TrEMBL record:
Keywords: Glycoprotein, Repeat, Secreted, Signal
Protein name: Gnk2-homologous domain-containing protein
Superkingdom as given in the UniProt entry: Eukaryota
Classification via InterPro entries: CRR_secretory_protein, GNK2, GNK2_sf
Species: Carpinus fangiana
UniProt family annotation: Belongs to the cysteine-rich repeat secretory protein family.
Amino acid sequence: MLASKHIALSFLFFCLSLHIANGADPLYHFCFSQENYTANSPYATNLKGLLNLLSVKVPPTGFGLGSTGESQSQINGLALCRGDVSSTNCKTCVVDAGKELPSRCPHKKGAIIWYDNCLLKYSNMDFFGEIDNENKFYMWNVQDVDNPTSFNQKVKDLLSKLSNKAYDIPKLYAAGELELGSSQTLYGLAQCTRDLSGVDCKKCLDGAIGELPNCCNGKRGGRVVGGSCNVRYELYPFVDA
């Protein structure tokens, strides 16, 4: 484990229930702010307004950011849907996240939540355009591959290729696959929040790829999920073409 805030979660993919696989339940969340707001305060009102704004702004393109309020009551937020998710499922995810996060982090001025289909983050701090290296967690398949050294290199090759592709396009998202032989295929994904520059997106993704050995060495599937970017690989398809 890298730090107290870097949480490791392991999942055996065939034990995952269908509703988790479909992104209906949160993967993880952090209540990262030490500052609180009170019920019925201007900040609470502005948070509701921000969540409503994001639920409308995000689904058409899969990403949106916004700010509501002024001075000490201002709140900033963003939401990102996975690049292959439809606008309908994106909206559902963002709305669910907007309901779930305030209840999981009551009265906290800053918090973040991840689902398979989206992430949502808000804070009283201006975090737009900055790489979030603090809020991060790992997930992996508990099954091992037969040849971890070779497999790890294939994972790095695929995800590095996807990183190079993602940072250079406006959507900051790329998914792809690599044939491993013996009728086996490796699938991967790399994505950044679109408030980042292309250069910072690549920096974030390459950093996440570099962290995979800390959690997922020789594992059949794994991901590093952060507040600004995430990478994932599996031996089964997990995104829509």
